[in-house]
Amino acid sequence: MSFIRDCWYCAGWSAGFGQALETRRMLGEDLVLFRGEDGRLRALEDTCPHRFLPLSMGRLVGNTVQCGYHGMTFDGSGACVRVPGQTNVPASARVRSYPVEERSGIVWVWMGDPARADTAKIFDLPEMHDPAWAMHHGDALDIRANYMAVAENLCDPAHVSFVHPTTLGNAASEDVPVETRREQGPTGEVIVTWRWIRDGEPIGFFKRFGGFTGHVDRWHYYYMHCPNIAAIDFGSAPTEAALPEGERNRGVRIWALHFLTPVDADRTVDYWMHIRNAATDVAGVEEQMDAMFRTAFDEDKEILEAVQARETALAARPGGAPRPLRIAIDLGPNLYRKAIDRLAAAEAAAGPG
């Protein structure tokens, strides 16, 4: 399979990168990331061009990284600046460097042509900068599944009734149809899937963090920013409030953000976080929410890994795997696959920069 490379991918939270060498495998490529003594974060190919030792096995020297085998030293641009024992540095002594940006405590790495690295395409939400909302960086979920399968799960509100019955869903939503549309956002195409569940029992999450005991109206809006970011707006309000679609801020509202970074063809890291308009100054609420999110996302992980394993086994049979059955709730995932095809075609047509 091919990856969409002209894209910003999350490598983690800014707080997780100090003056040390950190490794990441992204889109089948091995990177070493490091924050120099000037505070700036850099990303290089994690391979010394001399004997191919991973640079991450070396050491940080100021704003450079020194190979642990023979001491060749590389700056943030990937150029070799020192070869011990000789004064001349071969022009070919360099490694690939990757553009890095930090926004809202998130580390973004551009995996495509550096000449096309457009910082305007870095994901953002107004609520990330609004003092009325609380933002919390969560965790990283390592999933043994292809990133498109993980993304399809994040275009699919219908699964929550069955996969997350104690946390993010319940039986009240089982037969509520899913609506779907396409939009154009600041970073590209967005697949939107959503539904409202009117006058139903609150889900476990909002029983705990919204304090709801009576019936509520609740919503799930899944915004898949192609190819790799899901912004899920979910919340609840008392049924008697009869909230219209455009007044969701009057309810208890959460944005759950998922930044999907393919590791290789059958492994994905989901960096997740949340933004909330409730309990914004309650001590310890982030840790409590993290615990409930981990329960829910581990449920997704179990499902997705089982599907990946079965697809792999079916593909190995004579004649290959059968085509999956498609039903009404699959419109969002189908539109997502088509969007990925368009992105891949556009990238191929652009060619190397």
* CATH class placement of the largest domain: Alpha Beta
C-alpha geometry: globular
What is the CA-atom radius of gyration, in angstroms?
22 Å
CATH architecture level-2 label of the largest domain: Alpha-Beta Complex
Most strands sheet: 7 strands, antiparallel
**Total strand segments:** 18
Organism: Paralimibaculum aggregatum
Protein name: Aromatic ring-hydroxylating dioxygenase subunit alpha
GO molecular function: dioxygenase activity
Keywords: 2Fe-2S, Dioxygenase, Iron, Iron-sulfur, Metal-binding, Oxidoreductase
Brief write-up:
Helix content is 19%, strand content 33%. It is built from five helices and 18 strands. Pfam families: Rieske, VanA_C.
What does this structure look like?
By secondary structure, this protein is of the alpha+beta class. The protein folds into two domains: 8-119, Rieske Iron-sulfur Protein; 124-348, Alpha-Beta Complex (Naphthalene 1,2-dioxygenase Alpha Subunit, Chain A, domain 1), CATH 3.90.380.10. Helices cover 19% and strands 33% of the residues. The chain has five helices and 18 strands. Strands 12-18-17-16-15-14-13 form a seven-stranded antiparallel sheet. α1 packs across α5 (331-350). It is globular. The mean pLDDT is 94.
